[in-house]
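Quick look at the format.
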Amino acid sequence: MAVTWKLALLLAVSSAAGAKQYDLPATPATVAWGHYEAGATPVLTVRSGDTVVVHTLITNSPKGLEAAGLPAEQVEPSLRAVFDGVPASARGPGGHILTGPIAIEGAQPGDTLEVRILKIDLAIPYAYNAFGPTTGFLTDDFPYRRVKIVPLDRRRMVGRLAPGVEVPLHPFFGSMGVAPPAAFGRYDSTAPSIHGGNMDNRLLVAGTTLFLPVHAPGGLLEVGDGHAAQGNGEVDITALETSLTGTLQLILHKQGEGPATEAAYPRAETPDAYVAMGYDEDLSNAARKAVRNMIAFLVAARGMTRDDAYMLVSTAGDVEVTELVDRNKGVHVVLPKHVFVGR
């Protein structure tokens, strides 16, 4: 039954260039609940250059949303189906409902997966924000739980957070990652690491390209944790959490193809800047990793000396706190491309 369901919905459409486009819904058969895993069975296999329209689900339960005041009829049927259809044994250790894994034909450890984020659409007209007594950055200040449903105005692209307060919407996926090395086992979706995952990087909007190092055969990309908007730090542990639909082109770069496309650690590229990331339980160590990763990229891809790269990051780069709340803290370095004149 599950195979028939997937075959009916994963429709491939040939393009003029020979690549294909797939539609991947979020169903009990096509989600990974709370984990990334090298030994997972892919729900879809594509070739390099193919595009996947990925449907993702909000990180809350139907009961939780209804308890926060959302009318029952506004809960997505697909969310109810996943909560009813995914057994407890398949859930955890984290809480994110991720769509995938998607295998890329020929991907092997040492390769790099390029994820071109072509488009991200709001799937529902609401989001939520929440904090609790054991989560977030200020647990001593807020030793209680609160959940708020936030209406989203898709025409004006704002979220109405409070009376007279509108938050501009810039949708992105909080979690985009490949499988970690097999030694990680079933890895908790909470903490970002060398595989990407729950990076919560608000720069990963449409038009940005993400580069992820491949650690397992097939790569095994998973996507979810939709955010309509988020501030750097994500201090109360949630953004404007919502369901999103993303159009992603997946391009495989084989090991040794060239330094500009290789990634030993997650990094990204916006139309205007290079972005290097770092994750660690210690915020200072996360910053060191991010700065070192930017230096390594500049040396390999831009031909700079290590000394000059270090100086450039200090004089033109911005070191920003990505998030403070996912066990591994996140830091990213943003370097504008305009500093490279005539190169």
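Next, a different chain entirely:
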Amino acid sequence: MPEAAGAADTGMLDVAIVGGGPVGLYLGILLIQQGFSVRILEQRASLSPHSRAIGIHPPALAALAQAGVGAVLEADGVHIRDGVARSRGLPVRRLSFAEASPASPHILTLKQARTEAILEGRVRELAPGALLRGVRVGSLHDAGTHVVLAAAPEAGERLGPGAAERLGPGAAGAGCTFRARLVVGADGGRSTIRRELGIPTTDRDYPDTYLMGDFPDTGSDGATAVLYLEPGGIVESFPLPEGLRRWVAHTESLLDGASAGDLAGLILQRTGVTVDARANSMLSAFGVRSRMAARMVRGRAALVGDAAHQISPIGGQGMNLGWLDAAALAPVIEAALAGQGTGPLLERFERTRMSAARRAARQAGWNMALGRPMPASFLSLRNSTVAWSLESTRLRNLVARRFTMQ
């Protein structure tokens, strides 16, 4: 692929990671810790303040500990050790995550913005020049012995701090060219790397829509997660740091123009709980689409996270899946850069991670079905069945482990 006139060439890297969200940052840390030359290319010029993902499950917590960030995440987050289902003011069933898995007794909740800030801090601690912000990758070419990426400053953005100096004088104008022995696409559901590799996807739109927001926690549930199984649709409630609580309500349609008062009204109507709409600090309406790439590896490039698989955010598994992808891919990259044969390793990586994504998608589908509106008579039958079936400690622990991705 010919370079654009005046483009800066950054030299040969071991690995270029496209996407500096939580998954790309984490993979970068693992590889930098092994001594590899890495660049993480992120089109956002600064960290996003938005925090849709908040849950970190036990397998991901164990993986994050390998990156040297486990202790600070644990210290900053809320430890959820149990969850309770309620319906029309009465308890249906309580699940203890600590009882189900004493070695991994909790889910951690922490706003995604804080999680990303912690991961970015670790990257800059290990290799100050590894993360380049405000850089948009436009094309990829596999040259056989290496991959060439053409990049430029994101339209309407300035290069992030230090990026222009590290990329050279051509970066601010004609852009720059990155050459790397291997490339990883961690660039989300609309992945440029997936598109450039020509990897097709299977997409599915779900009828489910939700409205979520963060409010001060003035109730008595503390660090317990609560699911309200109501005729009008599920309402979920999760504790967050700084005295906040996240509320997620199933809606009849996508409420793009909804206000915090609208969500507060839904919460009160279905659960009887009052939240202060004036103190709302985040509000988002969203629908659900699943997307599965046909494969995760092609040539010298691989996909991880949402670039490879998007599932419903209900259940909070998506970000965790991406971290576990990265944890599984890192040793394969190390073997490849050491000149070892990696065919069977790559095949196993792709097979096991796509299987995990499909399993998570099924669990997410079940979670959504559980929370859809239904007549009160059917709701009573469903709640009674759930309560009866979970009388068994063994089955109750199995369900708790499934909800925590164990």
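DSSP finds twelve helices and 19 strands in the chain.

See the schema section for token definitions.
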